[in-house]
Amino acid sequence: MNPDGTNRVNLTQNDHHDVLPHISPDGKMIVYYCHEDEALKAMNLDGSDKAIVLKANNLVNGPRWSPDGTKIAYMSFDDDLSSSNLFIFDLLTGEINQITDQNYYSCLPAWSPDGEKIAYVANPKGNFELFVIHLATGEEQLLVTLTESIHDIEPLPLSWSPDGERLAFAKEFNGMFDVCVIELNGKKLINLTNSVEYHDYAPSWSPCGTKIAFVSMRNNKEDIYVMTADGSQINRITEFEGNNKYPIWFSIAE
């Protein structure tokens, strides 16, 4: 749909969840998790030519295209779903590389715009925290704690600013999630929504860097809102039945 909520098109129609979509860098394809097939699938932007991209023995989810469009980062859970790790699938060679090897949850990968880093969420101490891993060296950087207690990962998808200098995410304050932004040096954390009454989460930065879409519960159900990148001018853009979540921006393909 358009950024103002108009021209909504339903791309998948089944009795199962199709979630966590991500648009290819050329704006022509969508990768997502299909619960019915228990696999990562891709389709054209108009919903045609759906095909399985990756199906594994274990649950895989949270796909994110690399900036050059040749790879997909994703999370894979162990057999009893008690932990997960991050992997990169090379679309050209079919090779799969594991980039984390932990006995806790490492999930929701997000590539930096230059393709050199991946931000992700992990809970080595119980609470979920925001990390950045440098792919060339494997060096990990802890930026901020996101949750106040053990929590599910639904509110926690991440988004890089187009210039690669900042990350948008949801952070828990006194039991409520707010959309925040932090610089990569771990300094200057800014709470953009600062709500004490409802959850705001799952931010997505616009390609131009001036706006952020996010999910909010301010009308007692999940809907998508858009605000300027400084947290002002918040507008609701979905007023459809049911819950609406996990917004992703993209530019129209030429």
TrEMBL record:
Pfam families: PD40 (PF07676). It comes from the Bacteria. InterPro entries: 6-blade_b-propeller_TolB-like, WD40. Belongs to the TolB family. This is PD40 domain-containing protein. It comes from Capillibacterium thermochitinicola.
